[in-house]
Amino acid sequence: MMSESGRLVITLTLLTSFLVCVNAHFNYKEALTKSIIFLEAQRSGKLPPHPRPPWRGDSALDDGKLVGVDLVGGYYDAGDNVKYGFPMAFTVTTLAWAAIFYKAELTSAGEMRNVLDSIKWGTDYFLKASTDRNRLFVQVGDPVSDHECWMRPENMKSSRKVLEINQNCPGTEIAAETAAALSASSIVFRDVDPAYSRNLLYSAKKLFQFANEHRGTYDGECPFYCSYSGYHDELLWGATWLYIATRRPMYLKFIQDESTTAIVSEFSWDLKFAGAQVLLSQLYWEGQKEFQTFKQQADGYICNVLPESPYHQAFITPGGLVHFRDGANAQYVTSTAFLFSVYSDLLERHHMQVTCGDKHFTSVQLMNFAKRQMDYLLGDNPLKRSMMVGFGNNPPLQAHHRGASVPVMAPTEDVNCGMSFVYWYNVDKPNPNELTGAILGGPDKADRFIDSRVNSSYTEPCTYVNSAAVGVLAKLAS
């Protein structure tokens, strides 16, 4: 007969195998690595040798020359060749937050160096764009002329006009978001490169002062990046990151006495209240009880989103995906998953739960919801297909993306813009260049997905979709 110890060993072995099987439903480490590679595919400027997307090359090397400023670098936001400062800053802020909160997980996965490089690619650009006080360059490229030509950035001939905000033409949202990006990144680089960290923080302080003293909404990035939520969320978000980075009373006073806040259901490049509330909840649990209101509002955000909550507001598709808007809805999926992942860890760390009416939700339940959202994008959905290029089962092949869909050619080759759509846009065949790791716009509210380049609401990627995915993928990979 088998001994009791023998039975115990077999039982534990089977249990361990079961847990490994459950956790290995997807290779989250692979998804994490590839999600960062996509950000590298979005780089503008002079690329380092041997870029991981091998089909990318140098581009837009004269950016800023029209106004006598070096604005080379930064990121293209999506499938076009325009550099928009507002979403670029949110991309960097969320990536920096992931690097801070999930430092151990990213280090264990071997991706921290790549994340640091991705952050610095953005912050180097922001430093160049904000050298003068009360002035920030916020866009390079003309979306009208850009959309008239389907061309990879290495060969583009479209206008590289430059837009700026200043004290006569303010843009509080963009200035405050850029301040958030720089202050969050200063924390990331504090131990890695102290001098660079101090430079980032100095610029962040200048930009927040500009944002606060010269208030106004800038509509120059409309209709693509209009601020529908106003600028109060960015001011709270920027002040919160500056307070975390400096612990200076002036930012605490702003948060307590001057900021506006609200319970929301969304966290995105346009609406930051929930992000700031989660950050301030961490400080509340670490002893700063003056942030109790923000902790209660963070709980309210969770209650608004969780399907089992009696206060649930967010729409959930039949397949289980949170859905806010058609057109790059994946951005709301990854940002929701990221906040739920962070808040779950905070609840676990401080032995807390979220109360929504007569229901109580544990850290495990929050993390399960975050995992379900990411798993849907990675292939656990009614279509049984991945929404990440180059990953999983039946991944998309026709990302709405100029660089991926236009074959590599000599940088000097001239292309007819009118024919570019005939050759590379209106063709029903896979992209010649794999846009590895790009999480595309994703399904509609009925879980339908069309892998077609011309259907941009389904197939266009965005940097801020992937930046919000990095942290939660690192957590899942661990």
Report a brief summary of the structure.
The chain has about 475 residues and is mainly alpha-helical. It has 18 helices and 7 strands. The two termini are about 40 Å apart.
Provide structural commentary:
It is a single chain. This protein has 478 residues and is mainly alpha-helical. The chain has helices at residues 4-23, 28-41, 85-101, 103-108, 112-129, 143-146, 172-188, 194-213, 232-246, 249-258, 273-285, 292-305, 330-349, 363-378, 402-405, 417-425, 456-459, 463-477, and strands at 83-84, 135-140, 162-166, 315-316, 322-323, 354-356, 359-361. Helix 9 packs antiparallel against helix 10, helix 9 runs parallel beside helix 11 (273-285) and helix 13 (330-349) packs parallel to helix 18 (463-477). The protein is globular and about 60 Å long. Residues 1-24 have low confidence and may be disordered.
Topology:
Blueprint: H1 4-23, H2 28-41, E1 83-84, H3 85-101, H4 103-108, H5 112-129, E2 135-140, H6 143-146, E3 162-166, H7 172-188, H8 194-213, H9 232-246, H10 249-258, H11 273-285, H12 292-305, E4 315-316, E5 322-323, H13 330-349, E6 354-356, E7 359-361, H14 363-378, H15 402-405, H16 417-425, H17 456-459, H18 463-477
Antiparallel strand pairs: 1-2, 2-3, 4-5, 6-7
Helix pairs in contact: 2-18, 3-5, 3-7, 3-18, 5-7, 7-8, 7-9, 8-9, 9-10, 9-11, 11-12, 11-13, 13-14, 13-18
